[in-house]
Specification:
mainly alpha, 6 helices, 2 strands
Length: about 250
């Protein structure tokens, strides 16, 4: 009777915890919706400012509706030059500042560097047939190389050992020892902790739906579907909740 009431209490705690998580997720969705609406309004406002029609006052409009084509031209306000003044030559020098072009892409400092060296196929001088020596080198270009993640099958194999001496002695019981593999993250599932971590991270941190994750896992070499991924997420969260409850109970008992 006591065990039944204890199980019911644990189930109630688990249900309350899952309900709190669901409420928290709903609140996060509402906050994200508000942020999206605010950003949408900002984009709409900026787009209107950038591409909307603009009224520009013409410099040729006069208060009385008449405009002058010659008021803004200094050639019609200055006196006419004489022949001697017209023959004067004004020389000037234009100094242009060369701006260094800045790259819009670069790699972070401290990233791993792999250098690939290229040497001539033949280092024998074509003239005297002597051995040539290296006089220098230069970096002709740098490239950013991406090494994608890879899928690996990990087989957990338990080995058994038996004592041959005790085996031949009929008076002694057989002595057998077997290695014990660690418990899986989810029972009867091929999902390892690393796979579960990526599924949960992509869903809640990168906002990548599970049905889109299926295609990515297929490219890596894992055949699954969104139903399995959803089941993994639920079971992982449930196990985490149970672990937290047990930890709290141990703390309370202590």
């Amino acid at each position: 009777m006591g065990n039944a009431s204890k199980d019911e209490s644990q189930n109630e705690k688990l249900i309350r915890l899952l309900e709190d998580q669901l409420a928290h997720s709903n609140q996060q969705n509402k906050d994200l919706s508000k942020q999206i609406e605010a950003l949408t309004d900002q984009v709409r406002h900026l787009t209107k400012l950038l591409y909307g029609s603009k009224t520009e006052k013409s410099k040729y409009n006069a208060p009385d509706g008449q405009g002058s084509l010659f008021d803004d031209d200094p050639a019609f306000r200055e006196p006419e030059h004489t022949e001697e003044q017209s023959q004067q030559t004004i020389s000037y020098t234009v100094v242009r500042k060369v701006k260094s072009k800045k790259r819009n892409d670069s790699l972070h400092d401290g990233i791993e560097v792999e250098a690939i060296h290229y040497h001539p196929e033949n280092t024998i001088c074509d003239c005297c047939q002597g051995r040539m020596i290296e006089i220098g080198s230069k970096i002709v270009r740098e490239e950013a190389e991406f090494i994608p993640a890879k899928m690996m099958k990990v087989q957990h194999i338990e080995h058994a050992y038996e004592c041959k001496g005790c085996k031949v002695d009929s008076s002694q019981p057989a002595q057998i020892k077997r290695g014990k593999a660690p418990q899986p993250a989810i029972q009867r599932s091929i999902a390892s902790p690393s796979v579960l971590a990526k599924v949960i991270y992509d869903k809640f941190a990168q906002y990548l739906p599970l049905y889109r994750q299926v295609k990515e896992w297929d490219r890596y070499g894992l055949n699954t579907n969104d139903k399995n991924l959803s089941n993994w997420v639920i079971r992982a969260q449930t196990r985490l909740a149970i672990t937290c409850l047990r930890t709290n109970e141990r703390v309370d008992d202590g």
